[in-house]
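User: My instructor asked us to take a sequence, write out its structure as tokens, and then describe one feature of it. I'm not sure where to start. Here is the sequence I was given:
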Amino acid sequence: MGRWLVRGLCLGLLAFVVFGPLANMVLWAFTERWYFPHALPIEYGFSFWGRVFAPRGGAIESLVNSAVIAVGTVAMSLALAVPAGYALARLRLPFRSLILLAFLLPQAFPNLPVYINIARIFYGFGLNGTYLGVVLVHTSHGLVYAVWIATAAFASVEHELEEAARNIGAGAMHTFWTITLPLAAPGLMASAIFVFLESLDEFTGTYFVGAPDVQTLPLLLYSASAGGNYQIASITALILLVPSIAFMLVVERFLRADVLAKVGR
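Assistant: Let's start with the prediction itself. The structure tokens for your sequence are:
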């Protein structure tokens, strides 16, 4: 009995820690009035949703900007990750492990000083306040996921299939486009989704390189939170959360255990 009680308390605490903030966010998104000492909102409504999606609310423009930047980041990341992942998976490169670790360097340092220095460099090239500058910053961060997952995806493709295609006269490029790439496509799709979500949620790099000319949903969320407007902040966070959950469910279907087992090999 005591063991079940402890397990129940632990599960309840875990559920509260995980779902408590989400429930609070959803409540604030549909709240008209809520203040201490009331445990629940006094009045519910959708007036703040109207403010967010009004022409002057900024949400539509920020959502479009976030989507455009995320798509550009995915395109640039995959353009670099596909050849890099194929080379790392198929060629006997010297220092292969060190090359893979090099892509982790953006994660090894605090984002704030890194992005401040990137912003200084971009200022000299006129990239501050531009979509291209923001896409480049997001790409530098997203390459971690893109290259590692692409390498694992190509490594999961059996060599025998490529050799069989070459034995019947297929060239290297034809084999790549008709055999290797289609078989690695699920892993590459998962890589693209990870990069897309990372770009969609990126705040620090966008703030230092893009603001105030490039407004995205994370910047709108920050402005609303800093101004104490919890309803608008919660609505913006909910807009960001929905695609994240949807895409992660898709990733769960694409990333098989045998692909994940190839990561870092």
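For the description part of your assignment, you could build on this observation: The beta strands are 31-33, 43-44. Try explaining in your own words what that tells you about the chain.
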